[in-house]
Amino acid sequence: MRFELLVGLRYVRARRRAAGGNRFISFISMVSMLGIALGVAALIVVLSVMNGFQRELRTRILGVAAHAQVVAYEGDLQDWPAAAKIAAAHPGVKAVAPYVQQQGMLALGESVRGAVVRGVLPADEDRVADFAKNMKTGHLEDLKPGEFGIILGSELARSLGVMPGQKVTVIAPTGLVTPAALLPRLKQFTVVGIFEIGMYEYDVSLALIHMKDAQTLYRMGDGVTGVRIALDDMFTAPRIARELSREYDSSIGVTDWTRAHANFFRAVQIEKNVMFIILSLIVAVAAFNIVSTLVMAVQDKRADIAILRTLGASPPSIMAIFVVQGALLGLAGLGLGVAGGVALALNIDVVVPAIERTFGIQFLSKDVYFISELPSQLLWSDVGTIVVFAFVITLVAALYPSWRAARVNPAEALRYE
How far apart (Å, rounded) are the C-alpha atoms in residues 52 and 44? Predict the structure, then answer.
């Protein structure tokens, strides 16, 4: 390939210095190159944002939910210490924590909001969830049995207009049956803290109380809703859930996060795949602009091709020369696109806030999206896939014009020279 590569490189350099009609070919080449660069950069940035969104979604969901949980198929889990002991004995389990989870209404004056009330043991909960490091005020340890303290999500506290130290009324749907009516159970709780996970769904609807207070409020005795499990590796959750389920009787089941939140992660993965396909079309269109560039280059170089043929160059050699031209255009565009895309993906946390401040807009609203900040996670495997895909498309686009060049008849090309 030394001869073909040398001529191909010379043609590329010559076109950049060309004058007259050849400047148009140079302009089309530049447009094709920039189109590939733009498409590649867009692919890298979008896939990085989708990866970051998936990571943030997983991290924030599992910071509140559990990697796995042991629950009773019917009613409450009564002998939860034994169930927790079995789960804790598994080598892949890092920590376990019992919990009570029920629906409730929170009232302060005329403000009333529905909420998920979760009863926890602060010391155990700190090992399976991330509430402690997401506390805006107060501490998880401020929840003490019998004192009826409550910790609210930041958006829930804001909607109720409540501050730490104030009292809110928790209304349990399971009430007292009287001859007159079903009376709900009411209990005043003192707000001892506010947390902010950064995921609107939890910040607006979750309230934490001590597990003993939850058992008293919801009249559960010593039973709990289930046992939450934290794993050393979250991605082993399906396997460990299957292994643990064989340790319990038929009245107890084990669920994991991949099933409990499958819709979220499936939707993100589908969206990522669709975005890859859509943005790949930009790269494909830009790459196939190389077809027009090389067709015009072949037409302009017909006399040169004929001379090379008369000097002994074979049709495959002529074809290789123009394939080299197309590949060089593609590589130049790829280099610009990868450099720009990687730089933007690594600095998306700086660029996006700057754009939002400049134009007074917000890309992600808390009450619409699960997260309010645009995350980014650059995976070099994605960059490699994009580079290979774009380069292959470029080579395919260069084949037809190169084949046309190889078929140039020297006698016809030199007839009017």
Answer: 12
